[in-house]
Amino acid sequence: MAKELKFADEASRQLRAYAAEQNIEVVWDRYEKMQPQCGFGTMGICCRICTMGPCRIDPFGEGPQVGICGANADTIVARNLVRMIAGGSAAHSDHGRDISHTLLMAAENPDSDYKIKNEEKLKAVAKIYGVETKDRDIKEIAKDVARKTMEEFGRQEGTIVMATTAPPARQKLWRELGIFPRSVDREIVEIMHRTTMGVDADYKNVIKQGMRASLGDGWGGSMIATELQDVLFGIPNPIKSMANLGILKKEKINLVVHGHEPVLSDIIATVAQDKELVEKAKAKGADGIGVAGICCTANEILMRRGIPIAGSFLQQELAMVTGLVDLMVIDVQCLMPGLRDVARRFHTKLITTSPKAKIDGVEHIEFNEKDAVKIARQIVESAIENFANRNGHGILLPEHTEKLVAGFTTESVFQFLGGKYRSTYRPLNDAVIQGRLRGAAGVVGCSNPNTEYEENHITIVKELIKNDTLVVTTGCNAISCAKHGLLQPETAFKYAGEGLQEICRAVGIPPVLHLGSCVDNSRILRVLANVVAEGGLGNDISDLPVAGAAPEWMSEKAVAIGMYFVASGVYTLINHPLPIEGSKNVYKYLTEDIEKEVGGKWAFEPDPVKAAHKMLRHIDKKRKALRLKPMMYKQAFKPEE
Amino acid sequence: MDKILVVRSERCMACKTCVLECAAAHSEEKTLESAVNAEEIRFPRIILEYEESETFPIHCRHCKDAPCIAVCPTQAMSRPNEESPVILNRDKCIGCNACIIVCPFGVIKRDSDGKTLTKCDLCYERLEEGKDPACAAGCPTGAIKYVEVSELNLEKRKESIRKYKVSLEKG
Question: Theoretical Cys-Cys bridge with A77: which of A44, A120, A148, A306, CB 3.0 to 4.6 Å?
Answer without folding.
Answer: A44
